[in-house]
Structure formats: C-alpha cells, structure tokens
Amino acid sequence: MAHSEDLLVLKNFIAGKFVPCSSYIDSYNPSTGDVYCRVPDSGIEEVEAAVRAAKDAFPIWSSKSPWERSQILNKLADLIEDDLEAFAQAESKDQGKTITFARTVDIPRAVYNFRFFASSILHHTTECTEMASMGCVHYTSRTPVGVAGLISPWNLPLYLLTWKVAPAIACGNTIVAKPSEMTSVTAWMMCKLLEKAGMPPGVVNVVFGTGTKAGEALVCHPDVPLISFTGSTLTAQRITEKSAPHCKKLSLELGGKNPAIIFDDADLSQCIPTTLRSSFANQGEICLCTSRIFVQRGIYSEFVKRFVAETKKWKVGNPSDPTVDVGALISKEHLEKVRSYVKKAKAEGARILCGEGVDSLALPAGNQKGYFMLPTVIAEIKDESCCMQEEIFGPVTCVVAFDTEDEVIKRANGVKYGLAATVWSSNVGRVHRVARRLQSGLVWTNCWLVRDLNLPFGGVKASGIGREGAKDSYEFFTEVKTITIKH
Ligand code: NAD
Questions:
Q1: Are 276 and 224 in the same domain?
Q2: pLDDT value of residue 187
Q3: Cβ(235) to ligand 1 under 6 A?
Q4: Ligand 1 binding pocket includes 238 (Cβ within 6 Å)
C-alpha cells in the first residue's frame, strides 16, 4: 500500500481549471493490488458546474470555423504524441494492460483520433436537391447539438474517450466527459494539455467519479441533449431509461460475444496467430475480442492442438515488462468473475485445455497481489452454456466444432449480441455469403481489428444502437435541418 502522501490525487477539469472535489474514491494498480490514486467522487453539484461551463463556451466554440477547430485538435494530437511514453506508462499502470499494448495501440490511436477528426471535419458536404417545377431548391444545414455528455469504459481508456471527444468538439459541440472511475488518469493528463493546445476554457470539461453518481447526473441533466456511451449492455439499459423523459440523442456502443468461424480451407498459418490475438489481446478485455471459436470438423483437432500450444507461449506477468503478453485484469472483482466462468464451464462438463486451474502461474515478487490469470481455452462446451452466451471480457475463449455453413451461421447468430465476427476461408464466394448472413455490426474476414475510421463502427442486437466513424459521428454530433428556398 502506498503512503497517502505518495498517492496521485486527480481533480475535475471544469471551465479550463482543475477543481478539487469534496470526496474521493480509491483507484487501484491492478498489477500490484495497491491503491495508488484518488479519483474525485463527483455528483450532481460537479456535473452541474461542468454543464454550465460547457453551455457558456458553446456560442463561441460552435461559431468557429471547422478549420480553426481542426488546428486545435491537431495541436492536441501533437502534444499527446510528444508525451506518448508518459501516457503509455500511465495507462499501463492504471489499467493493468501491457506497456507494449499501451505504446503501440492505446496512445497512438488516441493521437490518431484527434488527427483523423481534425481532417475529416474539413471534408463533409451537405445535400442539395432542385425541384424545378416548383421553383425550389432544398438543401440541408448541419449544426452542433450543444453540450455532449460522453461516458467511457475502463478497457481502452484514452483510446475510447478520445474517439468521442474528437468528433464531438470537431463538430462544434462542447463536452462534459466522464471516464471510468477505474481508469481516470490519462483523461486527467490530457486535460493538462488543453490550454497549450489553444482549447478555449469550457469546451472540454471532465468530471471524474462513479457511474451511478456522476454518470447518472450527466445522463439526467436537462441541458445535455446528447449522450455518447460505451460500456456494458446493462448500463446502457439504465441510461436509456433515465434519459427517456428528456428524449436525448443516444449512441450506445456495448458488449459482444464475438464468433470466429474457421472453415477447413483457412490458412492456419495466418489464422492461428490472429485468433490468439483476437482472443487474448489486452487480457481479452476488448469488446471486439473473440470468445467463441467455431472450427470446421476436418481441421478441428489440428487447430486445437496448435492453438493450445501457442496459447501456452503467451507470457503473463508484470505489465511494464516489454516481453509480457498478458497483463493484469482491471480489478479483483472482475478477475473473480472471469474465473467463475471457467469454474462453471468445468462443472458443466466442459474441458479446460489450458490456463486457469490447469497450468500454474508464476508471478514476479512485486505482482503476487495483482489480478492475473493465464489465457484459458475451453472445449467440449455446449452452445447454451453461459460461457458461450454471456460476455466474459477476460482471457477466456471457447472452441467448438461445426460441420456445415448453414449450421455455423445459425450457431454464431444464436446469442443476444452482434458486435464483431471473424471469418476464415480462402473461398471468396463463401466469405461474402457468410459475412452477409452474420448478425453483426462488423465482420472481418481473414484478419482482425483492421479498422478504417472512415467506415461505420457499432453493433446490432444487444451490442448497441448507432454507429461511429467519419460520416456517422458527424451525423450523430450534429443536427440536420432541411431548408427550402423558392425563387
Ligand atoms: P460499464 O457499463 O460498467 O461502465 C461504462 C461507463 O459507464 C463507466 O464510465 C461507468 O462509470 C459508467 N456508468 C456505469 N453506470 C452508469 C449509470 N447508471 N449511468 C451513467 N453512467 C454509468 O462498462 P465497463 O465495465 O466500464 O466496460 C466494459 C464493457 O464495455 C463491456 O461490456 C465491453 O464490451 C463494453 N465495451 C464496448 C465497446 C464498443 O465499442 N462496443 C468498447 C469497449 C467496451
């Protein structure tokens, strides 16, 4: 346990200033189990102040040209990039993810989010039609919505927060953001750079705290007409209920139970390393991670043998060690939840091929109290099992055999979620056919996590409502008006 004088103490960022809070919550370093940071426990009062600041800043910010806003976004991207190593170290310590992942994925993507929307905001056009017989032209005009409430989760903290902040402010909105109470540090670090980037006070406000207190105060605030939320399906249901009386605009990016479908003509030399990453990257704590692997029966045994052998090579340990592949899970409670799924599977008669309860985990002395677990592969499990139906959100994946294309599509679609799917086959016709029939917002074939931010991102069924991306975020963060001119 750190001494109280060593603790990092965060402050809310409101109207361009860091403001202390009357109460705080503890934040843990997942790789040691120690409290190392105190996060403001904001509530109605803090949210009220932040919304007021955002409302005050709106008239000036929304009247700036896209070019002026773009320059500030680009400057902020440069400043984060200049500090990339410090941001990566902080993200790894706060979240438990490996330093390698933070250096190569989280922080570069946060930088890119700002650069991307700084550029894309310059290239939108609106629509125009002519009705010659009536002597009319119609055109659309887009304006920012107002104060945007942005709520983000703990798994990719700065990456997902900036995926909302960048388009929201690029479009001319002002914002109140609430990062996860478990991973608030890099959002606070970003606030320190805003003034230098030239961001006017009040455009970006960040309140820290829990979902039930700070998050709900934001969702229920009558002057916040729009909520962009990434997190669990359960929280999204609550947000939908709470925001309904205000008819708010909602974007909901939620959980997944993502299948990988591997046909017998797949190139296993590509498929196996990619499916390992898609199952275990970031400790399996990515909404897009694979957790159900369907393998065509002819190659099932070979796939399982090779996949398990490769899984066992993944090194679990101190996230700051650059040779480590799997860091710590976010919290003790989450670790216990993930482990309980493996126990349930075992009790149902499934076979644990490697990892939890099968292999031993040796941790460095300083990490004995951290929240670590071995990547785990489960086989001989029924489709109805909770491990095949519910989002586990940890380094656990199930592998099962299938025979035909029709059968596997039905089984892959047989869950409440529909976020991302992966299809492996060298038959182009089959790849298109299967991709079309999968109930999923994203389908990757013969690859995983290759993203073009221009194109829509989001889920179907319980995985979400709405899409994010260049055009989609622009449409969400603006209101459109149709204007008719008669001459
Ligand atoms: P969560 O729903 O518990 O929390 C997400 C955020 O919502 C946090 O900031 C939390 O404080 C806040 N929150 C909680 N209750 C709230 C309430 N009543 N009102 C307002 N805000 C509230 O999710 P989590 O555990 O932080 O994140 C993991 C989940 O996020 C997983 O289900 C994962 O699949 C999902 N996720 C989805 C995507 C995507 O793009 N689809 C990306 C990453 C994570």
A1: no
A2: 99
A3: yes
A4: yes
Ligand 1 pocket, 207 CB below 6 A? no
State residue 3's pLDDT score: 58
Residue 34 has pLDDT above 60, yes or no: yes
Contacts by 443-450, CB closer than 8 A, 24 or more apart:
444/420, 446/266, 446/267, 446/270, 446/271, 447/274, 447/422, 448/274, 448/275, 448/277, 448/278, 448/288, 448/290, 448/422, 449/277, 449/278, 449/281, 449/288
Q: Indicate whether 2 pLDDT > 80.
A: no
- Return the pLDDT at 6: 83
Annotated catalytic residues are 253
Is residue 1's pLDDT more than 60?
no
The DSSP bridge partners found for residue 13 are 18, 206
Q: Which helix (H) or strand (E) holds 443?
A: strand 442-445
Compute the distance from residue 270 Cα to the ligand 1 centre, in Å.
32
Helix ranges restricted to H, 121-184 = 157-170
**Residue 54 placed within a domain:** yes
Given a cut of 70, whether residue 211 has pLDDT beyond it is yes
Ligand 1 atom 37: residue of nearest CA: 254
- Residue 433 C-alpha from the chain's centroid: 28
Please give the residue range of the domain that contains residue 482: 8-254+463-486
CATH number of the domain to which 31 belongs: 3.40.605.10
pTM over 0.85: yes
Residues 283, 140 within the same domain: no
Distance 469 CA to ligand 1 centre (A): 19
